[in-house]
Design brief:
Elements (H helix, E strand, L loop, with lengths): L2 E5 L2 E4 L19 H15 L7 H20 E4 L5 E5 L2 E6 L2 E4 L6 E4 L7 E5 L1 E2 L13 E2 L1 H4 E3 L5 E3 L2 E7 L2 H6 L4 H18 L3 H5 L4 H18 L3 E8 L9 H70 L1 H18 L22 H4 L6
Antiparallel strand pairs: 1-2, 3-6, 4-5, 4-7, 8-13, 9-10, 11-12, 13-14
Helix pairs in contact: 1-2, 5-7, 8-9
Length: 368
């Protein structure tokens, strides 16, 4: 039975060996050894002048062919962005670093080459959000059955986002989950629905929706770790949430009313901030004026009392003089406000005075 190399797992029997055909993954099948030697022999015969081939040359060709088959059948090349996962009879045994590595031929050992340094992207609620091959932004197609979610206060909101992930543990990634991309997508959608369902519509639609990205990423990582998926969530990128297209007009009216309410509220707060300090300042001014008036009246009363005490002390020393001085001062104040002129005709020099009554002066109002 001729020997042939079946897959990336190594050489085996023709037709896949006694365990059936080799795995679908890996390089293509190499030609049969007998056919390879026969074709090589025919080419050498045509190339040689005599049309024949000596036994040493034939043996050298056979040894070279066997060496090539052994080399390519027992080695595997791991790319720089890959990690080789080796299974022996279906059981994980070791990992292979980038470069050429030795392994037993298939079906004894089989090598899987997952790309551990490649960042994968899964989209939820939309398709085609990346860059087009011809440059520019591609047309994003919405997926309503994934994008429409229910908030905590019973409103429907449209949420579209993408998840970037990498392979963290290649062995767990290969053998613990069957469809990694679909698993990440379903976990992402479930985590986002849970986060949106815990918050109200206003929180989801405002700029604080960025906080949901961290919450979804943390919840996804916990779920995938519980599955043993061997996946690391690099980032969660959300587009701005919006209302569904069916109610977008009514939603815009509600948002406009909310903005008007906020505008009027800010205007009222500004008026309050202006009027209240002015009223407080006016009240403080009146209070300070009342305090000043009280202090002035009290001090004047105290001054009058002290003055009266001083006058009384002087009065006790000379009652007649003081009594006469008080009389003269009182008469001066009283007669100073009177509108009459009194002439003493018996006084010296008063006989030549002509009595004159200033009627126009008497009719003038008194100054207060």
């Amino acid at each position: 039975m001729p020997w042939s190399n079946q897959s990336s797992g190594g050489g085996g029997w023709k037709g896949g060996g006694p365990w059936g055909p080799g795995p679908a993954r890996g390089p293509s099948h190499q030609p049969d050894l007998e056919e390879f030697l026969k074709k090589g022999q025919d080419r050498l015969r045509r190339a040689m002048p005599g049309g024949g081939m000596s036994k040493p040359v034939m043996l050298l060709i056979i040894l070279a062919g066997l060496a090539a088959i052994i080399f390519f059948g027992f080695t595997v090349r791991v790319a720089p962005d890959e990690l080789g996962i080796v299974t022996r009879f279906g059981k994980f045994v070791r990992q292979l670093p980038p470069g050429l590595n030795y392994r037993l031929p298939y079906p004894i050992e089989q090598v899987y080459l997952p790309k551990v340094n490649f960042t994968n992207t899964v989209e939820v609620g939309m398709r085609g959000s990346g860059q087009s091959p011809f440059g520019g932004q591609t047309i994003v197609r919405e997926v309503p059955e994934e994008a429409l979610m229910l908030t905590g206060d019973g409103n429907i909101v449209k949420v579209q986002f993408s998840v970037q992930w990498r392979i963290k543990d290649a062995a767990k990634f290969l053998f613990n989950i069957q469809n990694p991309a679909n698993t990440v997508k379903e976990v992402a959608e479930s985590a986002m629905r849970e986060v949106v369902g815990k918050n109200k519509l206003d929180f989801v639609l405002t700029e604080r929706f960025k906080e949901n990205e961290d919450a979804v990423q943390q919840l996804m990582q916990q779920t995938l770790d519980s599955y043993g998926a061997g996946i690391h969530i690099v980032n969660v990128l959300m587009r701005k949430p919006d209302a569904p297209d069916q109610v977008i007009d009514a939603f815009n009216d509600v948002e406009a009313a909310k903005q008007d309410r906020q505008r009027l509220q800010r205007k009222a707060e500004a008026y309050q901030n202006r009027v209240v300090p002015e009223a407080r300042g006016e009240a403080a001014r009146i209070l300070q004026a009342a305090i000043a008036y009280k202090n002035r009246v009290v001090e004047e009363a105290r001054g009058e009392a002290e003055r009266f005490k001083k006058v009384y002390e002087e009065y006790k020393k000379a009652p007649d003089v003081t009594r006469e001085r008080l009389f003269l001062e009182t008469m001066e104040k009283v007669l100073g406000r009177a509108d009459k002129i009194i002439l003493d005709s018996e006084s010296t020099g008063a006989q030549g005075v002509v009595p004159y009554l200033p009627l126009n002066e008497l009719t003038k109002p008194k100054q207060k």
